[in-house]
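Page 42, continued from yesterday. The earlier attempt failed because a stray header line got pasted into the input along with the sequence. Redoing it now with the clean sequence only.
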Amino acid sequence: MRSLLGLFLCVSVSFGVNAANSVQGYFDLTKDGSKFKTIFQEGLSAADLSSINYAVQGMSHLNEAIPNKDAICKKIKDLAKTLPTVEQSYYATTAVEKLQCKDALHPDTLKTVMKTLDDTKATLSDLMYAVYSLKALGNKGYDKNTAIKTLQEYLKKDDSVNNLGLVFHICAEVGCGTWAFERIEDAVIQADEVDGKLLHWEGGLPVTALVLTGIIKLTQVEKKPYQINAEQSVKLGNYLLSRRSVQTVKGAAVLLEAITYLADEKAISPVCISIKGNSQVGTDSEPIQISISDLMGRNHPSVTADSVVAQSVTRLSDDVVVLSKQKLAKHSKESTVYTLDLMKVKPERGQYKLALSAGSSSATLPIRALGAIDIGSVEVGVGDVDGSSSPRLNTVTHPNKLALALEADSLQKVIIKFALREKGQTKIAKVHQTFVRIYSKAMDHEVIFVAELESLKTYKMEVDVGSVADKFNYNSGLYGMEVIIGDAIISNPIRWIVAEVNLKFATANEAKPSPVVRDVKPEIFHMFREPDARPLRLVSDIFTALCIAPLLILFILWAKIGINVRNFPFSLSALGFHLGFGSILGLFIIFWLRLTMFETIRYLLILGLVTFICGHRLLSNIATKRKRVQ
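This time it went through. Structure tokens are written below.
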């Protein structure tokens, strides 16, 4: 319960940081770097070349010294005795290069690499491993023209983003000319955007880091303008920083490499703007500190002290601008930190947004201005639920407690009213959380009620003792009453024990209404309407005769006119046609009596097909006979 009460005292009011063209946060070498360092140290103690290689690369990006180099070199030598794949050769050669190990590689390492370059079935990943292995060995024994043709053939078959990233890395080492550089635009177009803030390539962090570093390396080699614009670099930076929770050695290494490459490249290096430390100000607080740096937390080359300006500070409640065009002061000890003393303008208590510009970059940051409040006298008392008499209210001033305990039973209600004002002002103060806690230490029980704002001036709480008895488990006794005032923008949250109240609840059985006893009702009998009397048998017979009369007339007329029955073609087709036609008429009668439409259609398809075939043959035979007669 006390932990729940703690939540009531502290409200988390937040709104998104709307970074116009800057990255939110940066890679903190103190906090993030120490976590990554621990991951890399675990990688150095691993028993596989992959973990060791990525750990060595990661420590290099952190500019951290690698301990026990000789022991690590010996471990690499033992693990590299057999190198079945070029990937393992890559891990061994690049780690040995960084550690500057001597005689740590297997003699056949170069043969494995060259064999991969000559293999027409080698994958793009294998080719990249082979190229980087040769670079680590200080050998460039590969044919540039052959490599270009091979890469072009691969992209014709599969030009996925991952393959493009591999080609960029290979061409950055081989030198493929403008052909590979022109494919950068194809890769950039395939990047996926998330919520308008993040940019990455399909495949997550490994593919994104591969493509991004490949683009940067290839662009540096070709010495041409970047195909990534400022907005895209900011979104890429946001994505990379959002992945700082990686736990694997490889994930940490590739993330750190991508952040380092993006931060080091001045042309596309995004500016990182964020509030350092506390984003709230008060009468006794220090000025707001704002960090402006590159992705690695270093000074950004495009940002000068004169270019860091608070364009405006706007109060969110009414959009009033309290400060504008104010230059920020540079921190005396930290070169990437600037300060803004907002208390000079004495802002009212509330939420604010700071529109900040740093060179060509900008950001909108949230700020809270804290203020103190005064709670006036509290009126607390007891009244009748039915309102038959006026409530008896007592006045208590903060921080005193009512001397006498209140008495309230199940037919009464407890009332408490109070008003809040800004400290030293007559202006009415509004806060987010106003609670009244009724508790008993002896019974270790508490119930918290909300005091509602009444007529925009006074907060009021009424508790019907009888209706809330179940919340107190019908335990009568002496309870304390505590007023709790909390808000994210007040500097003096209040907890004030106002009074004690002796609550008298009805027992659980008394509170429950007695069940209503009902007599057994007489049984209901339903009488259906008696059927109407049938007509006489003579009437039915006459009606039947009238129905059959047309058929009898038909037969009589046939007899008078004379039907040429002898010309009826007694063939299989004729019999099939007439039987089929008759069956269709019979089917319609059955449909009218009992069949559904779908059942009728199913039978009709079969009968119709037979009738059609037989009818077609019958007509063909008749036509043939007529031709013979002619």
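Notes: The two ends are 111 Å apart (CA to CA).
Reminder to self: strip header lines before submitting.
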